[in-house]
Structure formats: C-alpha cells, structure tokens
Design goal:
Elements: E1 2-4, E2 29-32, E3 36-51, E4 54-56, E5 59-61, H1 63-67, E6 74-78, E7 81-82, H2 86-94, E8 101-107, E9 110-116, E10 119-120, E11 127-128, E12 131-146, E13 152-155, E14 171-185, E15 194-199, E16 206-212, E17 215-220, E18 232-233, E19 243-249, E20 257-266, E21 276-280, H3 283-289, E22 300-303, E23 306-315, E24 318-326, H4 327-334
Antiparallel strand pairs: 1-15, 2-12, 2-18, 3-6, 3-12, 3-14, 4-5, 6-7, 6-8, 8-9, 10-11, 12-13, 13-17, 14-15, 14-16, 16-17, 19-20, 19-22, 20-21, 21-24, 22-23, 23-24
Length: 335
C-alpha cells in the first residue's frame, strides 16, 4: 500500500481514537531510531471532525450544533451505550425514531452531556444529527527512540490529532508496522512537500499505549529494529545549546542517515512541542527535500553525542527551518 508520510488519516466519513497506559523509558540511555513505521489506531469513542446541515422539512439545520456540540468533541456514550465506532453511532441515530439522544463525552479535559434531537432528511428519508465523526486512523510516522532494556519507544514528537478539527485523538488501541520511503516531493516556500512511502499492515512490530501532546508511546515487539544499535545519553533541556547538531532521518528506503542542522533557539518553557528552533544546513538534505517535510516528524535530534529532542514542525514559508520538542519533555509525557 502506498501512503504519504506524516500521519495520513483514513478517509472514512465517520472516524476517531483513544489510548491507555503510558510507556516510560526505564534506562538512562536510549537508542535514537529515525525509522519510518506505519501507525494504526482505533477508538474508545468517536470524535466530531466537522458539523454539517441536514435538509429537513424545516430547512437546512444542524441538530448537533443546535444542541451545543462542537467540532473536536469526543462522544463516548449515546443513551448510555458506549460508543466504539462510527457505524454504531450511525445505527443509533437511524433507529432513534426522531427521539432525543443523550450523548456524554469530552471537550478537551471537560466532561460534556448533550441531548440532540435527530431530524429526518428529505433526501435520504433517514434520521440525522448533522455531525461527521472519526473512529480510527492509519498513517506513517517516524520512531524517535527506544529503551533497549524494555523496548519502550517514543515517536512523532507531537500528538496524533484529528485532521479536520485538530482535536487530540484519545487512543484505546494501536499498533505499528514496517514502512519504507519510496519517494520525496521537495518542500518549497508556501508548500510543505511530502515523503511518500509504503507500509505493511499484515505484520505488527509494536503496540501503542498513549497519545500525548509530545508524541505517541508504546512498546516494540521486534527487537531487530534496535538490537545492533548503540544507546546514547539523553540531555536535559539546560544542556541543549544553540549551534551545530544533527537529525537522524529516513528519506529513502527504511535506513535512516544523519543530516546536519543548526539549533537556532532553545525555549525551555515551551508548551506546544516547540522547544527547539532548528535550521537544516545539510546540502544533501536541502537538495532532496528542501529541508523538513511532513513525514520527518519524530526524527531524533542529537547534539554533543546526546539525544536532545525530535523534529516536530516545519515552517511552511521556509522548509529549511522548523521546530523540535526536547527529549526531556517527551520523557515527561511518557511518564
């Protein structure tokens, strides 16, 4: 299967996610990886990706919006029934007979409880509530590190979020599978570019445990990814400094390479996963990708022989520059 790297979402009309216990690195040294992997996640609820209107006899209306629902809300129950899929929600609405449906869920960290009155569509003749939701996702990302003693890993450096609403997707189950980069579209000012890859969902090499603002975490079940690699010390934020550094990233096949960068700024109090401002200086990487492109998120950043962070964002107007999260913040999120 061919996929664009950088967490591409399943194109289902009603989709989402939710994970559980966090993984935490147990040793003082970690193996930097930079390896592309396929990511698959399923949900314990459904996330509202967008609001839409229903062509009711009374005109174009959105029952969900009228009841107070918003894009990004996570719906966990409907009339007391635990929601686990978009198809289940669609059937509940279809069988409602027009009677109100009581939803409970989350808006960020706040509990919500809303009663929605379904209306019948003149076009389809079915009851609808005017929301589009997601219950799963699939895509490709980059592994940042693994603890060689436990197999626990961190990846991406940023959260897996709903592509439409931007809401962090709370994950229940998930796995990772082998992936390979087969092409590059170089980034240009105003166009972020992309890595194109293939992945094999028939062979799992790890399990996901958590989705956080500083990355996804889990446990690798295939030690061949790191058994022959050397572990390095991790740096505290106060040790990171401006100047030369490297990223470990894969832009062809499945074997990563080191590329030169400069850390231009260190922000120790960053709360958005942008602890480090970085600029690509490596001539080979600039020629092939233009700098940082979607799919490189999670690429480990190393300085003075230590693992200091992971690539997270690119500046769309200048793909040679971007941001990274510190390894200290990633490990705090995994704790």
């Amino acid at each position: 299967m061919r996929k664009k790297l950088g967490m591409q979402w399943c194109a289902a009309l009603l989709l989402v996610c939710v994970l559980s216990p966090c993984a935490q690195a147990a040793s003082e040294k970690l193996v930097p990886l930079g390896v592309p992997v396929g990511v698959r996640m399923t949900a314990a609820g459904v996330v509202i990706s967008a609001m839409t209107t229903v062509d009711s006899p009374a005109g174009e209306i959105c029952p969900g919006e009228q009841a107070g629902l918003e894009a990004g809300d996570i719906l966990q129950t409907a009339n007391g029934e635990t929601l686990s899929s978009s198809s289940q929600l669609a059937e509940i609405v279809k069988q409602s007979g027009g009677n109100p449906i009581r939803f409970t869920g989350l808006r960020g960290d706040t509990d919500i409880s809303v009663s929605v009155q379904p209306v019948k569509s003149k076009t389809t003749g079915t009851y609808q509530i005017g929301i589009l939701v997601r219950d799963s996702m699939a895509g490709i990302g980059t592994l940042t590190y693994v603890d060689p003693e436990s197999g626990e890993f961190g990846a991406l450096g940023h959260p897996v979020s709903d592509v439409d609403s931007g809401a962090l997707m709370p994950l229940e189950t998930g796995s990772i599978v082998p992936a390979s980069v087969i092409g590059v579209v170089a980034g240009e000012a105003g166009t972020p570019g992309e890595l194109v890859g293939t992945y094999e969902f028939s062979r799992e090499i790890g399990q996901l445990d958590d989705n956080t603002a500083c990355g996804i975490f889990g446990t690798l079940t295939d030690s061949s990814l790191y058994s022959a690699e050397n572990a390095v010390e991790t740096a505290e934020e106060e040790e990171i400094h401006t100047g030369k550094a490297q990223i470990l990233s894969c832009i062809s096949g499945d074997t990563p390479k080191y590329y030169d960068i400069v850390i231009e700024k260190v922000t120790t109090d960053a709360e958005d996963g942008r602890s480090l401002t970085i600029r690509v200086t490596d001539s080979e990487l600039l020629e092939k990708t233009g700098g940082i492109v979607p799919g490189m998120s999670g690429s480990p950043i190393l300085q003075d022989g230590k693992l200091v962070g992971a690539v997270t964002h690119v500046l769309v107007n200048n793909p040679a520059r971007g941001f990274g999260v510190s390894i200290e913040k990633m490990l705090e999120a995994a704790a």
